[in-house]
Please model this.
Amino acid sequence: MKIRSYPLVATLALASGLTLLASGCSRTDVPTPATAAPATTLGTEIDDTAVTAKVKAALIDHRDTKAFDIKVETNKGRVQLSGFVDSRAQADKALEIARAVQGAQAVEDGMSIKDGTVTTGNQVDDTVVTAKVKSALLADPLVKSLEIGVVTRKGEVQLSGFVATSAQIDHAVAVANGVEGVKSVQNQFELKK
Model:
């Protein structure tokens, strides 16, 4: 059996596939321009992902920051650090490290200081609460849950990330407050620019 090469057909198929992929990233499902932040390009999203990875790596390289306690989100070069940390000194060090990362145009502090000790039971309960909040946000059609970070400590839920509108923030906080086991909700959201 002889295999034929169709370079023109393959090139057209590849071009069509790339066009469909690019058009799928155009974000036509966001609210009207008057109420939402301008859409980001695929290139900007890739740059933001790279900055997030660099910040996480820099935090991991510094043992005093306890990097796994800190969530990192990036939107158009703006980096947000959130989560529960042991001390103000730890938070300040994390901010300093993030600001030194190439591509981080601004760094927002959404970190909260831990109070008291956490038992193994608290940790298990917090894991369950976090999962329930994430599920509730994912199930809600008005919330873009993949853009929202959720961390729980002793029943206190912290929501963070970059969202398009204040209405989305209010709705996400209301959804989280409605979840069983949530004692309070901290809003550490930033609006997209």
